[in-house]
Design brief:
InterPro entries: Cyt_c-like_dom (IPR009056), Cyt_c-like_dom_sf (IPR036909), Cytochrome_c-type_DH (IPR051459). The chain starts with 5 loop residues before the first helix and ends with a helix. It contains ten helices and no strands. By secondary structure, the protein is mostly helical. The protein folds into two domains: 130 residues, Cytochrome c-like domain (Cytochrome Bc1 Complex, Chain D, domain 2); 86 residues, Orthogonal Bundle (Cytochrome Bc1 Complex, Chain D, domain 2). Helix 9 packs across helix 10.
């Protein structure tokens, strides 16, 4: 699907322009797509069910509160669109909330906004949707890519070079350049599952064993191997 950049949105006039006008032949926004985007892109900080129980807030000291049930900015459609597109730094919040305007299609933006609102109004049903998605996953490079971009790229970078957004904050040591890794699958499984500290590496590398299923772990391992430079 065609990705709309922030500049394209500005050129269109305003955030109030309808998704149909911007999306062209894209599918209409829907809750299922919103749940998938939330799980892949938002759960790292906001948690699997949006209650602020994400891995980063639990692992890093002084991390901002990320409970979507206690929003700092608002849950009306326009406010959510702005924070998803522009990120926290543009909305006088914090730098940890990244801008997704250049990475998500307009349909995905509209869908995840719709889902976050649904999470507020119909929490039990929204959580059930997320749980169902979790249980239906199987090993694939596409799944690995989605997990990597949603959970790993923030530190290791989109292409694994250790230059993600958090690299500006995490020092001594900085995020590892995964393109140089030659670690075997078993080692990757352990460090992803147990975290860096348990493997005598950086304590800032969070443990994902309780967050990712075995198919998800295997998928992200296979994807990480595609980033290597031989």
């Amino acid at each position: 699907m065609r990705t709309l950049s922030v500049s394209a949105l500005l050129f269109a006039g305003s955030l109030a322009v309808t998704s149909a006008a911007l999306a062209g032949n894209q599918t209409e926004p829907n809750l299922d797509k919103g749940a998938r985007v939330f799980q892949e892109r938002c759960s790292l900080c906001h948690g699997d069910v949006g209650m602020g129980e994400g891995v980063l807030p639990l692992a890093l000291k002084n991390y901002p509160k990320t409970n979507l049930m206690e929003p700092r900015y608002g849950v009306d459609k326009k406010s959510l669109q702005e924070i998803v597109i522009w990120g926290g730094s543009k909305k006088a919040m914090h730098d940890y909330s990244p801008p997704w305007g250049d990475e998500l299609t307009w349909t995905e933006i509209e869908s995840v906004v719709m889902f976050i609102q649904y999470l507020h109004t119909e929490t039990e049903q929204a959580v059930a949707m997320l749980r169902k998605l979790e249980s239906s996953k199987s090993i694939s490079l596409k799944l690995g890519s989605n997990i990597y971009q949603g959970r790993c790229a923030i530190c290791h970078g989109k292409t694994g070079e250790g230059n993600g957004r958090m690299a500006k904050i995490i020092k001594n040591p900085p995020p590892f350049n995964l393109t140089l890794s030659r670690a075997p699958d078993e080692y990757l499984h352990q460090i992803i599952s147990k975290g860096g500290e348990k493997m005598s590496r950086s304590y800032r590398m969070p443990p994902w064993g309780d967050e990712l299923s075995e198919p998800e772990l295997q998928s992200v391992i296979q994807y990480i191997k595609t980033l290597r430079r031989y």
